[in-house]
Every structure is written in structure tokens, then in C-alpha cells.
Specification:
Arc Repressor Mutant, subunit A; 48% helix; 330 residues; alpha/beta; 6-stranded mixed beta sheet; single chain; 13 helices; 11 strands; Restriction Endonuclease; 3-stranded antiparallel beta sheet
């Protein structure tokens, strides 16, 4: 698949079908993109003509599926100058320093405040002393690098000189064969640039802890890290999100019952006893703290909570903010 010939909307349709992992109707695809079926018809037709999607036989209304489920999703651009700069500089072999400096900026953005660009003769390109990380950055116009791009004896020396616990190479892509085998023997992790872009995208939605990023890049046991290996930054917060969602629903019911103040224990009894949910008291308290600060939806006084505004207005504003965040990511 030629990424250059796909429009942004076509890329998004591919991503929607991959995430759904089942055939979808025009309407279902359109809803997930906040579009109308008419607004995506040309893109569906174009993807069909390119042999990327097809109509599933015997479905009414018509449903679409990917021709190949293992297709590598093209990166979807978002309004991020840093990500754009990474994608531009990773192929600038005439001035590789630009890529090294941009990667350093990316690591700082991800919370590694002590990320430092070296890049001199007989020096690694980037070091992060707080986590004992050494990074070598490689640019190429071809899209992948092979073993000839890497000075493995120098990488071994960097590991010793900087007492590095983690050593990685970041490049647009990596050729199969000797490079991968040698990197595995040397204990060096190969990281695709798009994996860093994905980290930045997720980090903008909800920040990762630096320790979590180190675990993702260097602690998975995988020799190559691609964008598919980057989990959402909210994955460790799924239960919190679930409790918050159910709490907001309960708050709507409280309004109908004219309940204006409540304690964490009282809310826990409603969630567990009334709705049959499996939360403990501490988890509910964490959700209430989250709704209090930083969101300022609740205020706390004498171990009880109350809303800072009308619940319907709050939910309306949350909906507007959610829509704004969607557009930021697109």
C-alpha cells in the first residue's frame, strides 16, 4: 500500500476497520469519524478501487471489511509540530543532527527533563542519565536501515562508558536479517520513529509516567518496538475511567432525588449495592478526588462532596471538551 496516495480520511477509515475487527456499515464507520455516510462515500469508493477494502457478501445494509487484516496502518497526522518535525527529519540524511535534536526534544516532551543531545565524535546521540538510557538515532531516505548503518562496537563502548541500563536505536524502520539478529545478541532495542510519534500522541491525551515509557520501550521483551506496541496512556486508568463514568450517572440520579451532598461511603454503597459494581471504597475515593481536582466538578467539605455546578451543564461542557480533544488528535 502506498501511503502517499491515501487521503487522511482514507487512513482514518482503515484505522476504524482495524480497531473494530469486524465488518461495518457506511453509517457505523461515519459515526466513528463524526461524519455523515455521504461525507465518507467517496473515500470508501476510493479504498475499494485501491483493493484495500471490500463489501462483505450477503450483508444488508452493505458492510465493509479490510481485504487484508494484517495491513500496516499508515500514520494519521495530527496537529503536532513536533511529530511533523520527527517525520520530516528522520529521512534527512544530509543533516542527521536535526533528527537527533528533534528526538531529544521529544523525550523532554515525554517527561525526561534530563534528556541530552551529544552526537559528537565517539559519543552517543542522546543520553538520559536519570534512567541510564543511551540512544543512537539513524536517518535514511529509504525508510529502513540495515546492519551497515550501525557501529555495534561503538554501542558497546557507550554502554560501558555511560553505565547504560538501556540502549536503543531509533530509525524510520529496520531491515530484516543481520541487523535484527545482531541487535538482539547485543541487547539493543530497535525503535521505529512512529513508536515515538504514537507515544507523543497518547501523552498529549493523558500523560505517561516516565517509568511507564521506559517499560514500554525497553521492558517488553521485544527486539523491535513499532507503533503497534505502544499502549494507550490511559490503559492503567481504565478502572478509574469506568468509576468516573458510573459516578456521573449516579450524580444525575442524585439531582432527581434532590441529594446535594454525599460521602465517599454513601456513593460506594450506591455503586456496589445499587448497581452491583465491583469497586472498593478506596477506588471510589480516588475517583472522587479526580473529579474534585483537577477537574473541579466536585468540591469537598467536611468529608462530603457536592457539585460545583448543575450536573447537566457539567456533562454538556464535558461533551464539548471531548469533541475538542477528538479534533486535536485528528
Amino acid at each position: 500500500m502506498d501511503k502517499e496516495k491515501l487521503t487522511e480520511q482514507e487512513k482514518k477509515i482503515i484505522k476504524v476497520l482495524q480497531e473494530a475487527d469486524e465488518p461495518l456499515t457506511d453509517k457505523e464507520i461515519a459515526e466513528r469519524l463524526n461524519k455523515t455516510p455521504q461525507g465518507i462515500w467517496r473515500s470508501l469508493k476510493s479504498l475499494k478501487e485501491k483493493g484495500i477494502i471490500k463489501e462483505k457478501e450477503g450483508t444488508r445494509p452493505r458492510k465493509w471489511e479490510l481485504v487484508r487484516k494484517d495491513i500496516n496502518p499508515p500514520p494519521i497526522d495530527i496537529e503536532s509540530p513536533l511529530i511533523k518535525k520527527l517525520r520530516e527529519t528522520e529521512r534527512n540524511s544530509q543533516n542527521p543532527t536535526l533528527f537527533e535534536e528533534t528526538l531529544t526534544e521529544a523525550f523532554k516532551k515525554l517527561g525526561f527533563d534530563d534528556a541530552r543531545h551529544l552526537g559528537g565524535r565517539d559519543e552517543p546521540d542522546i543520553i538520559i542519565e536519570s534512567f541510564k538510557i543511551v540512544i543512537d538515532a539513524k536517518t535514511t531516505r529509504e525508510g529502513t536501515i540495515n546492519e551497515g548503518y550501525v557501529n555495534f562496537p561503538a554501542m558497546r563502548r557507550y554502554r560501558e562508558e555511560y553505565d547504560a541500563k538501556h540502549v536503543g536505536i531509533i530509525a524510520p524502520g529496520f531491515a530484516q536479517g543481520n541487523l535484527i539478529n545482531t541487535a538482539e545478541k547485543e541487547g539493543i532495542i530497535l525503535i521505529e520513529t512512529e513508536a515515538i510519534c504514537k507515544l507523543l500522541q497518547n501523552h498529549a491525551i493523558y500523560p505517561y509516567e516516565p517509568e511507564r515509557i521506559v517499560e514500554i520501550l525497553f521492558g517488553s521483551g521485544k527486539g523491535i518496538i513499532t507503533q503497534k506496541d505502544i499502549p494507550p496512556s490511559t490503559i492503567d486508568k481504565e478502572k478509574l475511567i469506568d468509576i468516573v463514568a458510573n459516578t456521573l450517572q449516579v450524580l444525575k440520579n442524585f439531582k432527581k432525588a434532590n441529594i446535594t451532598r454525599f460521602s465517599g461511603n454513601e456513593l460506594h454503597k450506591v455503586l456496589v449495592g445499587g448497581k452491583g459494581l465491583n469497586y472498593n471504597v478506596d477506588e471510589v475515593e480516588d475517583a472522587l478526588k479526580f473529579l474534585t481536582h483537577p477537574l473541579n466538578i466536585l468540591q469537598k467539605q467536611d468529608n462530603t462532596y457536592s457539585l460545583t455546578d448543575n450536573i447537566d451543564l457539567i456533562l454538556k461542557n464535558i461533551g464539548l471538551l471531548t469533541e475538542a480533544l477528538k479534533r486535536l488528535r485528528e
